[in-house]
Amino acid sequence: MTESEERLPPAVRTEALEQLLTERGLIDPDVMDGIIAEYETNVGPLNGAKVVAKAWTDPRYRRRLLDDGTAAIKELGFSGRQGEHIVVVENTPAVHNVVVCTLCSCYPWPVLGLPPSWYKDPAYRSRMVKEPRAVLSEMGLDLAGDVRIVVHDSTSEVRWLVLPERPAGTGHLSEEELAPLVTRDAMVGVAKVKAP
Predict the structure, then answer these.
(1) Active-site residue list
(2) How far apart are CA 16 and CA 59, in angstroms?
(3) Are the beta carbons of 48 and 159 closer than 8 angstroms?
(4) For domain 45-188, which architecture applies?
């Protein structure tokens, strides 16, 4: 067995660490549960999904979102740390946008929550700018050869959010029905939204 095979699953290690910190009085489980709930319900991909669904169903909101992402996102009540300046770019059949942060892991927390581990990985950060089509393919997104890929590099001053293409066959769905279809990965540009 290799060392990585002998390791305990992350959930087990996390639980053991939490128990140890609680026993030593370093954390309060109720406070931790509150923080987790905050990121699961009030900060995160669910917020971004609501922004996308509104843009898909309200053409005037979509225009405001593309003109001034920060202000339009704030209209829905989503703002705060790491969301001070968000630029929104729209995927179309001809252009596919994808986001990376080559320097660290700048990410729009109010609408996407905490960044996934792959987003912070040095391989993703360096390769996405050099060979985006290959990286997207490795992540399960194969784009037609005539689709232009535009890579946006987030910084501490500007964070990017992708407005994914609305999937075909969803014209009859409401904003509330569309939001659950939108994934974090689609809002970063490494996936497409799938019809139900």
Answers:
(1) 101, 104-106
(2) 49
(3) no
(4) Alpha-Beta Complex (3.90)
